[in-house]
Amino acid sequence: MKKWMAMAAVLALGVPATAAQAADKLKACWVYVGPVGDFGYSYQHDVGRKAVDKALGDKVETVFLENVAEGPDAERAIERLAREGCKIIFTTSFGFMDPTIKVAAKYPDIKFEHATGYKKADNVGIYNARFYEGRYVMGQIAAKMSKTGTAGYIVSFPIPEVVMGINSFMLGAQSVNPDFKVKIVWVNSWYDPGKEADAAKVLLGQGADILVQHTDSTAPLQEAEKAGKLGFGQSSDMIKFAPKAQLTSNTDDWDPYYIARVQAVLDGTWKPDDTWGGMKDGMVVLSPFTNMPDDVKKMAEDTVAKIKSGEFHPFTGPITKQDGTTVGEAGKPLPDGELLGMNYYIKGIDDKLPQ
Amino acid sequence: MRLVLEKRAEASGRMAILSPVIAIALTLITGGIIFALRGLNPFSALYVFFVEPLTTSWSIEQLIVKAAPLAMIGAGLAVSYMANVWNIGAEGQLTAGAIVGSAIPVFFPEFQSPPTLALMLSLGVIGGMAWAAIPAFLKNRFGTNEILTSLMLVYVIQLALDWLVRGPWRDPKGYNFPKTIAFSDWQLLPQFQLLPPSVGPIYINLGAIFAVAAVVALAFMMGRTLKGYELRVQGIAPRAGRFAGFSREKTVWFCFLLSGGLAGLAGICEVMSTVGQLQPGISPSYGFTAIIVAFLGRLNPIGALVAAFALAISYLGGESAQVALGISDKTARVFQGVLLFYILACDSLILYRLKIIGRTPGPAEAKA
Amino acid sequence: MNDQLLSVILTIITASTPLLLAAIGELVVERSGVLNLGVEGMMAVGAVSGFGAALMTGNPYVGVFAALAAGAVLSLLFGFLTLTMVSNQVATGLALTLLGLGAAGLMGESFVGQPGIHLERLHIPGLSEVPLIGPILFGQDFLVYLSLIIVAAVSYVLFRTKAGLIIRAVGDSQQSAHALGYSVVGVRYLCVMFGGACSGLAGGYLSLAYTPQWVENMTAGRGWIALALVVFSSWLPWRIVAGAYLFGTITVMGFSLQAYGIGIPSQLLSALPYIVTILVLVVISGNRALMRANTPACLGQPFVPDR
């Protein structure tokens, strides 16, 4: 047995040659919380990684670790990448924040980028997408298209990003129909097609005729299609799954960001930035508007154009909370800090936010 | 032609040593073939998988970090299963321990002294025991099957944890993200240097020491004490146990409290070391993986320690293979499954002799 | 109101069917004295195989068959290890879960993001249109009916036929069954394969009828629930139906209550199915004699004939 091991070791010594050849390439690495096969959040990040491969493949080698659970494994996974010679590491889930900061302190020469968090360091930048911009437009479309005046909203966990999305959706809807209603179901999972489908069916049964989701699978949209109702996609364009139901999809496009950041490392111009990109930056993209009349499409396109030009911000004060109090100055957008910690519903949502 | 096993008169000592060797050899061959089919150099792939985790002091540290909770929980479960008490819910007891122990930093963040450490650890054990007490009580009082209750309670406590860290226990300065405040100083486990720096500095935390202590203590209990004898008798010959006057109820309580307490300790140790705060994800299924550890270790506490290391190597090896070779996490998991199959199958060779016999269909087989 | 009730009932049926399919298969396995904890892994492989076969042939029924076959093949591996090689059943089953989930992920790499083939629901003109009762009784996909037929068949075979007597004998007293000339290992192989086929079918139900798509980890722990339901049933087939539908009902009712906006923490509603299952089991396990009579005495024990 020992002999076997020794033999394997000896033979293996010949191998690192390939690693050495690759050494003159810059190593860019990613850590995903889910499997790349989720066709949702992690999948979209991996699409971004592949885009880097394609754009900078002659100078860059990419590596990823998938299915890394938030918790005890996260720090080790990130540190492993640091030790394996990665020069820039993207950690793509909120729960990787503290481990990223810890590892970054040990490896000052390596650049780190953490998605959806708020802690920065000299070698840690943060990035996120303004998904709420897309959700405002979805709200407007929903209010126009709904016959019952009620949308069903399927959500994962009550974190600020999700709450922000619900509020933005309702602000959009109220701008068209002040009495628009929303029914909300938390499935306590980012990712369980069966439960998402159950929630969708229940919501449709209770009179919602448009489904919105902040979970990752295509199941709710498929239920809408089956029932002859409408819905919105999430993370990626899901039109193939619901050609007659999808109105549009709120997709994440990380390609330009990832290419730019890796390029910055190549050029030696990388700085620890705080990027919160929206439609303007091409990070949030609404897939083509389908299954709607031209006037609705026109309205949606106008809003998109206004958000892109900076003329309009979905959270323009004053915003009235459920309890009647207001936040924000009249005519001015809520500050980003306020948005990032959002933990209240706006007026017009007949539900209690889980606290 | 077919394969048949035949009982040996007594366990083969030679096979006890040989069987893991055969298993590893078979795994290496199968693994080599899998990797070769994926277009990789099989030797370097196997090196990355099995040898690399042992080559640097960093990876050895990580190995210990990963193996410690598995060994601690696995040893407790081994004792429990040995006595025919089926605690499947260690993952839940781990979570309960982490929650109860974390109450100290959440409610008394300023309380910082050595007793903080001791109190948190004790509360962790108590939390695990308390959660394990539910299936034990239901089993003794109503005869409710403990496999179902302990398993279902895992999901219940995980949802409770989720509720706590998103609601009442949330860090007020954490932008409403689901986590408690970060633990500090005496709320974290101290680290020790295992070897002098000249050999290679390897740091371990208190959790690893607890794990080894638990394994040794349980091995002693099972091998050298009346309690261990009582538990073993109840496992091997339940009726004999009853005639000997051993109380089944007490055994159920003992096993659940023991394995639950150790799982709770493992939980609070994770929160106080690798995670550093309470959050929804605190364990990569340590409580379930420990079930494999217990059986892989032949329900022997020392065996559980060895098995914990074997599993830890396969996890870390899988991870380094993802980075170094670009294989996916799925390939690593398939490979891990194959490795376990070989180990389990070869284990049988200790008690049985493998025979290949000619075709002699029995009556039932003709029917099949 | 009728519409709401109908949608809730239909949702409960689809939510319960995969649990029912996987659990009834495992019940037969356990009745023969074998504990296969690999249900989750077999379900995953069934789901991906069913999805892939349906996609390639365009025929959902080919998919259903492929799911069933894939589950059976994987269980054969379990059978070889635990029955021929007499390895430990608990550990082997858990290893099978690891292997199955990994293998399913590998097999499905090219299926991600592809819309699947949907298993059609039954439609009998006239009957299916009767309000409320029509869609429930005559408007399901065929796997829903099949799941109930399997339960009826299992119940009949186990308790009314000689084959059932042999299966129970093998599970309750392997040495006497062997002494009577029955092949303990042979019977167990067949039962294990039946269980695997049912688990595969349950997986196929997920990827073909429930949510026609393939994504990794789409089984989401349903295999474990199925295992718990076997215990819940105290190894009696019709109780599995009760257990699976109870579990499905409470899950769906939780969503329903949320949509009404009642403000109970969603975590509590999500935990309810588990809590209620425990409570119901506590109540019915009061009858210890019944429990003991139906628990297979040789569950999990290896068998090697003395020669």
Mean pLDDT reading of chain A:
90
Task: Give the low-pLDDT segments of chain A.
Answer: 1-21
The low-confidence runs of chain C, each spanning 5 or more residues with pLDDT under 50, are none
Shape descriptor of chain A: globular
Largest interface: B-C, 53 and 54 residues
Quickly count the domains of chain C: 1
Quickly give the CATH architecture of the largest domain in chain A.
3-Layer(aba) Sandwich
Main β-sheet, spatial strand arrangement of chain A: 2-1-3-4-5-11
Largest sheet of chain A: 6 strands, parallel
CATH class of the largest domain in chain A: Alpha Beta
Mean pLDDT of chain C: 91
Shape of chain C: globular
CATH architecture annotation of chain C: Orthogonal Bundle
Sum up the structure in keywords.
heterotrimer, B: 368 residues, mainly alpha, ABC transporter involved in vitamin B12 uptake, BtuC, 2 domains, two-stranded antiparallel ribbon, two-stranded antiparallel sheet, 6% strand, disordered C terminus, C: 307 residues
Task: Describe this entry's structure for a reader.
The complex is a heterotrimer of chains A (355), B (368) and C (307). Chain A is an alpha/beta fold and 355 residues long. Chain A folds into two domains: 2-129, Response regulator (Rossmann fold, 3-Layer(aba) Sandwich), CATH 3.40.50.2300; 132-251 and 286-340, Rossmann fold. Chain A has twelve helices and 14 strands. In chain A, the strands form three sheets. Chain A has a six-stranded parallel sheet with strand order 2-1-3-4-5-11, sandwiched between helices. In chain A, strands 7-6-8-9-10-12 form a six-stranded mixed sheet, with helices on both faces. A two-stranded antiparallel sheet of chain A has the order 13-14. Chain B has two domains: 1-40 and 327-368, no CATH class; 59-313, ABC transporter involved in vitamin B12 uptake, BtuC. Chain B is 70% helix and 6% strand. A two-stranded antiparallel sheet of chain B has the order 1-4. In chain B, strand 2 and strand 3 (202-205) form a beta hairpin. In chain B, helix 5 packs antiparallel against helix 6. Chain B is globular. Chain B starts with a strand and ends with a helix. The model of chain B is unreliable at 360-368 (pLDDT under 50). Chain C is mainly α and 307 residues long. Chain C has one domain: ABC transporter involved in vitamin B12 uptake, BtuC (Orthogonal Bundle), CATH 1.10.3470. Chain C is 72% helix and 0% strand. Chain C has 13 helices and no strands. Chain C is globular, with a radius of gyration of 20 Å. The model of chain C has no long low-confidence stretch (mean pLDDT 91). Chains in contact: A-B, A-C, B-C.
